Amino acid sequence: MFRKGDTLVIASHNQGKIREIQKLLERFELKLISATDLKLPEPEETGLTFVENSVLKATEVMKACQLPCLADDSGLCVEALNGAPGIYSARWAEKEDGTRDFNHAFQKIFSMLDPTKSYAAHMTCVLTLAFPEGSANSLEGIVEGQISLPARGEHAFGYDPIFTPTGYNQTFAEMDRDLKSRLSHRGRAFDKLIHFLR
């Protein structure tokens, strides 16, 4: 499907997400470029599920550049909030001035909950690989855990500082990057992608 040196476009403008995907794909020795590198606009996420948004992003960027594209749609789902923020996870981090600050999202979540307690949650990632000939394949990874304040960890990316996976005492932001990559929702989706590619 892919040979060494083939080009794959990462359909994202999120630098943290791009770096994580590059790390997960480095074994394939592909030429990885992002939608940001190509100066492509961010598609509007109008889907109602992670799968719909992932497919939308992959196919729109693929049509714009006519290259294979990989898109990721992911988010935090809190049981006590009926699955919110869910597909709106990134939007919950947006401030009035249009900038994105996940500390703002943390405060928003815990303004609706008891900030002294922990709450069951899971993180979901759907990867979609879209090709110019028209095929698109989606793969999902989920990791269960809990959210709590205060935010902890130096490797801040998205909701990682408040999310602790089941069976561990560290948040994702406190973990070694390799361990986090193996345990995370994105890592689990990538395990399925790697099996698919092989």
Secondary structure elements and pairings:
Blueprint: E1 7-10, H1 15-25, E2 31-34, H2 50-65, E3 69-78, H3 102-110, E4 119-130, E5 136-147, E6 163-165, H4 177-183, H5 185-197
Parallel strand pairs: 1-2, 1-3
Antiparallel strand pairs: 3-4, 4-5, 5-6
How would you characterize the overall build of this protein?
The chain is α/β, with parallel strands linked by helices and 198 residues long. Helix content is 28%, strand content 23%. The chain has a single domain (7-197), classed as Maf protein (Alpha-Beta Complex), CATH 3.90.950.10. It has helices at residues 15-25, 50-65, 102-110, 177-183, 185-197, and strands at residues 7-10, 31-34, 69-78, 119-130, 136-147, 163-165. Strands 2-1-3-4-5-6 form a 6-stranded mixed beta sheet. The radius of gyration is 17 Å and the shape is globular.
| N- to C-terminal distance | 8 Å
Which oligomeric form is depicted? Answer: single chain
Question: What class, by secondary structure content?
Answer: alpha/beta
Q: Flag low-confidence runs.
A: none
Entry keywords:
Maf protein, 5 helices, 198 residues
Short description:
37% of the residues are buried.
